Fold this protein.
Amino acid sequence: MSNSEATGDVTLTTEARPGGCLAHRTIFLVLHVAVDVQSLVELGKKYPWPRPERCLSCESSRVWGHGYVPRYFEGFVRPLWIRRLRCPDCHTVYTLRPDLFPRRFRYSLLTVLASLMSKITNHRWLPSIPRQNQQYWFNGLRLQSMRLGSVPSPDMDVVKEVVSRGLIPVSHSLDCAMLRL
């Protein structure tokens, strides 16, 4: 039996042990890191991923490798192997992600921003990307602009403001900051 609560980049999971005792809490964090994506494609699991010196949850210096997970990104035929790390003291699991790709998005941030710019300035979607994806992004921008100052129709100034605050401009989440390593 387990309970989960998702809050932005952090997911708290509590698992029940046999006998009714609660096991440890596991925190999952997505860390955005500067990655040479071409080298990542070429080297795969041999790519030299950076790692935090200390755990962001408990300050422990024992952050170990926790394997790899395949993730699909637009523009790549095969999934990229993304590094995971784990703190054995507090059980935090880190997924390192290229900083060009926001959390839960297959498209790069540059592609998303180009789509928003096209819609705001030309009132048209980019023809090379599915319209539904672009509508979802624009609705996320509307939500972020409403949170900033009740701007019903976002413009490029709103996009700049959201990005300058370190937020994902198209996220539908309340807590949408990108954690960077």
Observations:
- Strands lie at 2-7, 10-16, 22-33, 64-71, 80-86, 93-98, 179-180.
- Confidence is low (pLDDT under 50) at residues 1-23.
